[in-house]
Structure formats: C-alpha cells, structure tokens
Specification:
Oligomer: single chain
Distance between the termini: 160 Å
Radius of gyration: 39 Å
Structural class: alpha+beta
Number of helices: 5
Length: 315
Amino acid sequence: MNSRVTIGLAGLLLLGAIFVGYWGLVLSRQPVPVAAPVAPPIAAVSVEKTVAAAEDQTRQPVVVLTHDVPPFTPLTAADLSVEKLRNPPAGSLNNIDQAIGRTPWRHLSAGTWLSDDSFEAGGTLARMIRSNERALAVAVDEVIGAAGQLVPGDYVDVLLFLRQDTSNLQQSAQIVVPAMRVLGVGEQYGLTNDGQSASPALSADDKLKQDQRRIAARTVVLAVPEQLLSRLMLATQVGTLRLAVRSSEEQRLAKYWAGENQATGKLDSANSQLFQFTQLALGAAPKSPAIGGHGGSTRPAIEVIRGNQLTQQTP
C-alpha cells in the first residue's frame, strides 16, 4: 500500500514539474513591453525652434557647386546649391541666378563656393601674383633651394656670387633681389589671391608623396616685381645663385613689394646695392672720372660693358 502511494505521489510531482516547465517556457517567449517614449515638454520644443530660427537668420546664403565642373562649361541649376554659412567668404555669390549660364575658365571642384573671380580667366600662377609682379621659375638643387626645405609661402633673398676671372677682377657676393615670395616648389603651389588653395585636395598618402617630390624638386617659382625681372634673369646666367630663407616673424614681408608709397623706394634701393654687377644696376654704377683734354676741358666718356665688367673710355 505504501509503495502505491509513493508511486502516485511521484507521478503527481512529475506532472507538476512538466506543467511548471511548460509555463516557464511560454512566459520566456512573451515580448518584453517597451516603455512608450516620453514626449518632451512643449515649452522645450518651442525654445529649440526659436533658437534654431534665430541662428538661421544670422547665416548668409552662399552658392556652392554640387559636383566637379570642367572648364568652359556653362553652369546650370543642377550644378548649384545654396548653403547658409555664419561667416560667408568675401565676394561670394548669394543667389543661384547669379551663376546660372556663366562659364568658368578653369576646373572647379565640388563644394567650391563661387564668386566673380571663379569666372575670370587665368591659370594657377596668374591668380597667385599681383598686377605689378611676374612669376619666374628658377632652377635649384639641394644647396640653392635651402636643402629642399622651401615651401610655398616662404620669402627668400636671392643671392648672387661672382667668381674672379679675366672679365671680373674681384669676386663678389650680393643680394640681387630681396624678399621674393615663393609661389611654388616643384608641383606644389600655395594660395591664390582669393585665399583658395592652388593645389587640389589630396589624401594623406598623396600628400606624403607630394612632400617627397617637393624636397627633390629642381624648380622654384618666385613672384618678382616687374622692374626687377630682367635683373634676376641676368643673375641666373652670370653667376651662382643661392636662396636665403627669411624669418616668418617678419610680418612686413606680406606687403614688402606692395604699397604705392614704399615700393618705389625699395626698387631704387635694390638697384643701388650692387657690387661688381654693374650691367644690372640700371645706371646706378659710379662713373669713372673723365680724362682731361686740351686746355683743361673734359670730354664725355663712353661706357663699355664686357660681360659683367663696366669700363669708361674716352674717344
């Protein structure tokens, strides 16, 4: 009798365990209720909208390109979009109608903000110099080019060394042209007059390769005042050049050759500070005393230039 009761109780417990396990399985499959998002207070939403509207009023519209545009291609509305900037670039267009139908003379990249300068003719170098300057390329090596450390935007003094020879009785060294702005080194260029980069945007790997090519570059492009262009050209042919880098702390360098009041004086000073290089002095070389003739009268002397030597001869 006891064994039958025990078997019955065991069966009941077994059924209970099965029922409890099944019920637990059903409960575990039921989705957990997600709490409904709490809506922000109406006052907070109103404040955010007010702040956004106030910030939008302080921003100015700027016309930008939505994709790359090749040169000599008229712009359409599909090429343009308007973005609002807090500090718009000076001279930027603010209406799409101002750009539709106009033709750029150079390649423009996507994201470029447009101004009237975007449609003016001229290549990279032409947009990097002032109206009274000329861009001139000078051959360099690791010694002439300051050990390959020149970068666009540096200012350099152009030095000339003349060796002693039969036509040059005394060796000399002098600054031919001071404070020349470096426009480009090899394939790398600086900023244009409107503050944009003259070189396209590069990835980190491409920039590293460009820096390596810059160090090994064999040409440097300088911005030369028009009046001193012929002197620098002659200097590259008659002697050995060196480019001496000037300190970035000289804040006046950015306007060294600019300004109507000072530019003339600087040109005259550069023309007079010459030694044994008189054919480039533009008439600033000292005159030899004239040889007296009959009765103490003087006869005009004739200047004779042989290479880099200037002599006075009386007929």
